[in-house]
Amino acid sequence: MTDMMNGVVLSGTGGRWEVRLEDGTVVEASLRGRLKKSDGGLRADGTIRRDTIAAASAKLKLAVGDDVQLEREMATDDWAIGEILPRRSQLARRAPGGGFGQRVIVANVDQVVVVFAAAKPDPHERMLDRFLVIAEANGIAARVVVNKVELVDGEAVRRRFAPYVRAGYPVHFTSVKAGEGLDELRAVLSGRRSVFTGPSGVGKSSLLNALFPGASLRVGEISESVNKGRHTTVGARMLPLPEEGGGYAIDTPGLREIGLWDLALEDLDACFPEVAALEHGCQFNDCRHITEPGCVVRAAVQRGDFSRERYESYLHLLEELHAGSRS
Ligand code: GDP
Ligand code: ZN
After folding, report:
1. pTM over 0.85
2. Is there a contact between 217 and 209 (Cβ–Cβ < 8 Å)?
């Protein structure tokens, strides 16, 4: 006799997985043997068929955030994950060592929330641009939170982040201390699965605790304790939001480790909305928007439609990708 139920993988790497069942209880579960085994790419002599390994591992490797179907062995009371339900999105990086396959850091992400402080510490826009490119490269919506706004002049900080509003990103100005902007932020987190990222000390934990009192959500700390003593540094963790609408805050130290070399040089344009909007306008099809004549991207920078700072981020990342593709 077995019992069947659906759930969401909250955490775990290798072996045991923490799964939240539909009724809200959290259980430890193992992976069914037939799911674990990735023999789809093996030849009879044991060597790996390279063309199939990527597909096989993408299909079979369980990740945090996966919606799963579990079975409970009545006799032993053990839960086993029998089925991974189709993913609607994922944050992935290329498998270590390059080559085939990819490592899914977290599955079924609705949005990436990049948090910075207006001051203490000062915002680092080039780092923000990098996070936004990672979200775009994975096809995941992104929003920006600027916290601690009570420390600075409100108008100046809005001017500073205006290029992001113009690029189409929702930008939230919040203060945990002054209770500013919290209701709006709560509304867009509720019912969604949001990856939280940004430098430490900007107020991510403070924000989550102010938004969802009693939940005791400590971004960062939790993953540190989960990963203690393990070899992996990449361990995403889903923190259920105590809201009627549900939703999760996702803490993933692995986001910083996503190298931009995961991105093909020609895909960078699509990761800057300002550039993507001008697609095919340049004189040359393969224009990299550096010094080429008839470049509408540089014209947009001249006009002030594409901020010079964001353009410099673009050039910087282009250079980085170029260096990566040579090595
Ligand atoms: P995290 O590392 O991003 O999770 O940041 P924390 O939530 O631990 O906050 C870092 C520090 O910033 C703490 O001392 C908080 O009290 C403080 N802090 C958080 N939000 C605000 C805010 O809106 N204004 C000010 N002035 N300080 C804040
Ligand atoms: Zn161009």
Report:
1. yes
2. yes
Structure confidence by residue, pLDDT tens digits, 209-224 = 999 886 666 655 544 4
Residue 150 CA: which ligand 1 atom is closest? 24
Question: Per residue in 39-63, pLDDT tens?
Answer: 444 444 444 444 443 444 445 589 9
Provide φ and ψ at 196, rounded to 5°. -100, 130
Question: Are the C-beta atoms of residues 49 and 43 closer than 8 Å to each other?
Answer: yes
Q: Does ligand 1 have an atom closer than 6 angstroms to the CB of 175?
A: yes
Q: Would you say 90 and 138 are in contact if contact means Cβ atoms under 8 Å apart?
A: yes
- CATH fold of 2-86 reads OB fold (Dihydrolipoamide Acetyltransferase, E2P) (2.40.50)
Q: Are 149 and 173 in contact (CB under 8 A)?
A: yes
Ligand 1 binding pocket mutation candidate from 114, 176, 208, 218 (most atoms within 8 A of CB): 176
Q: Enumerate residues 6+ apart whose C-beta is below 8 A from 151.
A: 117, 118, 119, 120
Which fold, 106-257?
A: Rossmann fold (3.40.50)
Residue 292 CB coordination number (10 Å):
14
CATH superfamily of domain region 263-326 = Probable gtpase engc; domain 3 (1.10.40.50)
